[in-house]
Amino acid sequence: MTANTAHITPPVSAQTSGNRRWRDIALLGGLFGFVILGLAGLAAATGWEDTLAQLAKLHAWQFAALIVLSLVNYLFRGGRWHVMARKLGLPTTFGQDIRHFIGGFAMSVTPGRVGELIRMRWIKRETGWAVERTAPLVLMDRASDLAAMALILAMGLALGTGGVTFGVPVVAMALLAAYVATRPSLLSALTTRAYRMTGLFPRLMVRFRRAAKSLAAFTSPTTIIITLGLGLIGWLAEGMAFHLLLVWMGADIGFWMAVTIFTFSTLAGGLTGAPGGVGGAEAAMIALLSLQGVPLETSLPATAIIRVTTLWFAIGLGLIVFPYAERQSIKQAI
Fold first, then answer.
1. Angle, vertex CA 317, rays to CA 153 and CA 298, nearest 5
2. Which residues cross the membrane (predicted)?
3. Residue 70, Cβ density class (10 Å: 0-12 exposed, 13-18 middle, ≥19 buried)
4. Which string of b and e fits 209-228 if b means at least 16 CB within 10 Å?
5. What is the sign, positive or negative, of the torsion defined by CA atoms of 114, 115, 119, 125?
6. pTM score
7. Which of 49, 107, 158, 218 lies at a CB distance of 3.0 to 4.6 Å from 114, suitable for a disulfide?
8. DSSP conformation class of 216
9. Residue range 155-164, pLDDT digits in tens
């Protein structure tokens, strides 16, 4: 009986996994369609002819340049993931870490950032490390992104982009979140206090406290400088892509203004809680471009193009890498 049960279980598990994958893909398609419909509605309201004329200004090599700058972002942030994995003591290679990092993008716009859980599952299979041991890696990756983007926003605001001064609270919130996420003792104390107040999820709280203590591996000045530097280069590359796109479409609002609007919109979209910031990021980007005098017939296609060549391009890469990463993790399972 036991043998038969063991024999039957894998196909059921595979079927469940397949169903979940199709569900996630359907969610991705639905969110993408939602954004496209919203932008199309605005374009129709302002006149399709003007919007299409703006799109016609762009050439294939310019789209390729935007993709290359996005790749710079992902490769530098993937390199940061590798640096932090080595610092944590994970016995993974550069190739493994890049595979995990890029493959996780496939789930970027699923609820609860499932991509992070997928990465930890792959690491657990390939190294035997429990989730609570790899959680600090995920936490530091998020904290490094927040810190880098907050610094970029701060630089943009300091260099004269006064039109988006209300971005200061976002900078402060991002820096605060990054600070808390990199303070092991503070995170541990907050976890303990949360448990004492609620009494909920005792096992999860214990695991989170253990993970918080592991953050000490990332607090050296050298590690902070390297990871922050890699994040800055990555996110500035995408900000530069947005600037070039606006220049090519005849709406040059200045490098730092473009970078600030792109970074602020990305952060603001994340704060809405929507998967991947879908909807919120686009709305913020169009609104901020309008404040700079960019007409809707330009801001709409610019927003659509930069989101396709950044967020949705990353998801596409993730969907390509995901099956390979899944197979490799099963093949190397300990």
1. 50
2. 25-46, 58-76, 146-166, 215-236, 242-264, 304-325
3. buried
4. bbbbebbebbeeeebeebbb
5. positive
6. 0.75
7. 107
8. G
9. 887 776 554 5
